[in-house]
Amino acid sequence: METTVKKSALVVSAHSADFVWRAGGAIALHASRGYDVHVVCLSFGERGESAKLWRKGNMTEALVKQHRQKEAEAAAEILGASIEFFDLGDYPLRADKETLFRLADVFRKIQPHFVLTHSIQDPYNYDHPLAANLTQEARIIAQAEGYRPGEPIIGAPPVYCFEPHQPEQCNWKPDVLLDITSVWDKKYAAIQCMAGQEHLWEYYTRVAQQRGVQAKRNVGITSPNVISHGEGYQSLFPRVTEDLS
Amino acid sequence: METTVKKSALVVSAHSADFVWRAGGAIALHASRGYDVHVVCLSFGERGESAKLWRKGNMTEALVKQHRQKEAEAAAEILGASIEFFDLGDYPLRADKETLFRLADVFRKIQPHFVLTHSIQDPYNYDHPLAANLTQEARIIAQAEGYRPGEPIIGAPPVYCFEPHQPEQCNWKPDVLLDITSVWDKKYAAIQCMAGQEHLWEYYTRVAQQRGVQAKRNVGITSPNVISHGEGYQSLFPRVTEDLS
Amino acid sequence: METTVKKSALVVSAHSADFVWRAGGAIALHASRGYDVHVVCLSFGERGESAKLWRKGNMTEALVKQHRQKEAEAAAEILGASIEFFDLGDYPLRADKETLFRLADVFRKIQPHFVLTHSIQDPYNYDHPLAANLTQEARIIAQAEGYRPGEPIIGAPPVYCFEPHQPEQCNWKPDVLLDITSVWDKKYAAIQCMAGQEHLWEYYTRVAQQRGVQAKRNVGITSPNVISHGEGYQSLFPRVTEDLS
Amino acid sequence: METTVKKSALVVSAHSADFVWRAGGAIALHASRGYDVHVVCLSFGERGESAKLWRKGNMTEALVKQHRQKEAEAAAEILGASIEFFDLGDYPLRADKETLFRLADVFRKIQPHFVLTHSIQDPYNYDHPLAANLTQEARIIAQAEGYRPGEPIIGAPPVYCFEPHQPEQCNWKPDVLLDITSVWDKKYAAIQCMAGQEHLWEYYTRVAQQRGVQAKRNVGITSPNVISHGEGYQSLFPRVTEDLS
Amino acid sequence: METTVKKSALVVSAHSADFVWRAGGAIALHASRGYDVHVVCLSFGERGESAKLWRKGNMTEALVKQHRQKEAEAAAEILGASIEFFDLGDYPLRADKETLFRLADVFRKIQPHFVLTHSIQDPYNYDHPLAANLTQEARIIAQAEGYRPGEPIIGAPPVYCFEPHQPEQCNWKPDVLLDITSVWDKKYAAIQCMAGQEHLWEYYTRVAQQRGVQAKRNVGITSPNVISHGEGYQSLFPRVTEDLS
Amino acid sequence: METTVKKSALVVSAHSADFVWRAGGAIALHASRGYDVHVVCLSFGERGESAKLWRKGNMTEALVKQHRQKEAEAAAEILGASIEFFDLGDYPLRADKETLFRLADVFRKIQPHFVLTHSIQDPYNYDHPLAANLTQEARIIAQAEGYRPGEPIIGAPPVYCFEPHQPEQCNWKPDVLLDITSVWDKKYAAIQCMAGQEHLWEYYTRVAQQRGVQAKRNVGITSPNVISHGEGYQSLFPRVTEDLS
């Protein structure tokens, strides 16, 4: 029976904090509903997204990574997700065939019901589109009967791109607004783990409030739902459904 | 309690057969699930979509309209929908403010949970985008507190564009694939009411089969769902949800 | 000498509050720098954007308009702009040839150095694109030697689309981020004139903060500029310059 | 036999000089190959494209039109086309149902093998897109069996948009480069009929040279064709063929 | 004299069956008209497109490749094309500089009059865009005088993208509809060689029928051509012509 | 004080002549205004853009490069820029991580106030988009505190794409028209250094004239500016400003 299978989700994050700002609500929400949510951080963002740490002085790349890993683990725990780190390096992030297979194997193991990752374009950050494309291609490999033949393949889980820092500049257009009102406190607690990027806490709080207002607007003011916080997502595939309302 | 309110849907069709080819599955499916589905035909397609009738000879516009109305009523009955005709004329279809208000009033009366209409672009058929824009604007009017103040306004029902005859040429890209397998027999029966356009019966059967294969592909081959027929839709607004799987 | 000619700007607003939310910073900023800024409100937004007033009860369209006019006049005064009202009606806004010429005549009189108006697309609000297109066409008429021959024609002032309520859904992409830090207090004071739309005050405050962060990001963290609030604009024409930095 | 039917083409020009600058090569080329080419000028461009005439002083709209008509007739004669004038007025050009039917009737009479008109977008000139849309819709009406039933309908002639003044700003992208080398002298002679717009003679000579270089580039430098002048066109419909080379 | 040179075409297929589903009609049609058509299969699709073979059990990659090669050779023979296999591996397909030069050398040898390959985007299959880009870049290398100086370079053959599995999702828009009615029997015979993908036989039969109906629609119902089957293509470069009909 | 810091600009050119045709005006103009302008040529264009040299016979790649380097140095001197050559090879141009860091180091050293490079798309030339992406990514690396920690990072200089050979085919749309009238003589002198590509001299002269006319058109005919030559640019980031006129 389908109901006995635990549902799962996979989140692929270029740097170790992206999953918090961009998908923390989705993670906490689905975790709270019984999903196993697994996060893969491709890098720690040690070069490009740790400015505050570097400015402290007396830093090495190893130390920065350590800091960032602890923050990410703390955030994942608050959100209710498991987490692993590929440690591929950032600025630039690069992925060879072995990395592709490594991620495909995660897909095979997790058998996700949906997938979250970065937008396909981002002129401010080349690591993000690379992560998105790696995720997409790994999903395709994991669907192939001829890759590690005999292993169970995966289905066709929907893939959603989470919100980039400057959405319009990335030609990112949300077609899904996720109501994260019920888990906002968890997301904000996870955000506060990111000690090195305090300047972003209020920025992403406001993002959540704006998407909340928009979600409210798109269900209509006659709806009884109270929505204060949201997250936007862009689907990469059509969804299959039997109900249009 | 929400469950006691009957759900409803509104379909706006430029010509009297469009709703059958393009949305017959959605109509039958939701009718079968208890929705009140209402169809508005803006014209009978008497000039532009009744070639076979005109070629019979001894025809007048009034006779053509009569024929087309009967066909559409028969199809609506099979699909389980109510239907009305605005008789605005076609080729070209034109709509003034009064028509806009008339359609806004239908919105107010139906209070639809979702709306189906044409694509926003169609270089082969200027009546179709006009219908789509009229529908969109009527929905906006019906949401306004200041239009017929005191009347109950409508919420923000999602609007879906159904598939045009040559989808790529209309820059129409489906983001929803509706599984209409369970009602295909009804849709095909409704299609057969369109005696004047027999050349399209098999065309739209194949459209349904192709969208069925694509729906199957997008749920994944590991899914137990058997999908043989589908309909594609393009959303005009983001959907609001609490579940991404 | 060019410096003796006073610079001017024209703002065309579909409803009587749009210019405040969307362009209040630009208006106050340029007014403070000596520009004559003139606002044309095509309608009062009496039907579509006055929900709170209608809910009070005992309202008529005339009363709502009166309210809205007073609010808009108060806001314009704070921002330092002159204002006039075309009273064309809203939901739907419609413009005939006479309106087009009336607006062209405003262009001729104002001789604006730049123009602000709505985005070209907005699926949530059909009055907005209509206002944008009316503005564009009036500008073209005002440039024509054969329109009221003998009158001084206008040049080719740049046209900027201000930010719609849900920017991505309107395919609006800002290519200009205006630093409105120095006039934010005026903009917020003007916003507070809009008593009927209190729910939008904080929404548009956050919009300004987000655009401020993005402006800061796009000048670079090494820049000495302190930017706390911004407004985004999309240009409709290429700008002509002699300096790329 | 197909070869006994004379081929024909229809060109719809918003103002009385557009067909010369933008399609003079295509007209002369096809006329020289035996096509009947017919030009419809929707207006004389009396307001918006006759600046030089107005500046002479002592002008009336009637006089300007007279001038412009003579120029256009002279150009058409050189190019080998017949011409007619709808005299709808310009800046703004507007078309009602009667105009639509009038143009549909021209389609029916000419039975064109291809159609040339303006681009679908032009932020510098709202008359141009209006002409393009009018042409497209008239073509659709002329295809309908129910429009003037009994009259021979038209087929599905390809429609090409000719080059606007600032192509990139109009999102116009040529997919056809017409080699007009053999008729360039005729096009330039026709261009010289436009005494009121002398500043454009060299501009459009350079356009032809640039499109010539591009055509040469797109046939390849190994091709024996000598191409010095070209015209770019954007198709609105797919072409049907049996040969891809 | 140009007429004595035999015409040729090059088809680049990511996996060993793609050229059959997607371009079998074009191949058979041009072969029947005297073209030398050459197919390059970059991989056998052994991992990603051989599910049925893998499910048989007792399979190795070598065996799967053997099977696929035989099927592809049989199909090519029916269509009248020569074929070669680069055996680069699939899921993922990757190409280094040597592969690029190898394909450029094929271009030099074949001197194609046109080129067929995959679409530039395909979110379901990353091998397809890679093949398209490899083909495009190899064509550019083969045009360069400085690549293997002294060898005859190639001209500028048009490149057409054939239809992907889910066209709208790939942003693929056909601007050419090829009438393959006369060779449909050959294409279907070739399709039947693909024993491992029987589920696609009817899918691609319906694709051909739909494109046939659309081709008929785009030549017009007044045309005497009988078109029952078609293939859609998207051009990547403008075509150069002297006739627009 | 800001005024004491000398302004600088960085130009990244895929082949050794691109910076002349495409950005020679911008370089000369800013050099004449006191900027330090530095050009990086990633390759000499020895394979793909030196056809005339190769046709002379008795050529080797080393000789071609030598020729091209001299031409480029002469052109740079005329324009007033410093120049360096990465000698990465062309057709195909490829860049590994070391090249990326090498270019990032140039960014760090130059600290440019603006950056010029190729368009993001070019179906005729795959080296051009590669150069554009390399430039964008190097800029991002150079902004990262964790790349060579302790070194001064760069700000967020605007990046402009210069005009490709066939602009519409590259989906390149200029949003900036640079008035290069005052330095046209220098640009044309630099162009004449490119002895191997004489066929392009007049082509790019006409490009400059057309962009000049368009610049004139976009400032308006009432402006006193005399503009005879221009260069078009497409911005990749929004600009931040305090003045919209």
UniProtKB/TrEMBL annotation, chains A, B, C, D, E, F:
- Keyword Plastid tagged: no
Entry keyword annotation includes Lyase: yes
User: Domain of life of the organism in this record?
Assistant: Bacteria
One GO MF annotation is: 4-oxalmesaconate hydratase activity
Which EC numbers does the record give?
Answer: 4.2.1.83
Q: Which Gene3D superfamilies match?
A: LmbE-like (3.40.50.10320)
Name-wise, this protein is 4-oxalmesaconate hydratase
Q: Which PANTHER family match?
A: BLR3841 PROTEIN, N-ACETYLGLUCOSAMINYL-PHOSPHATIDYLINOSITOL DE-N-ACETYLASE-RELATED
Which keywords label this protein?
A: Lyase
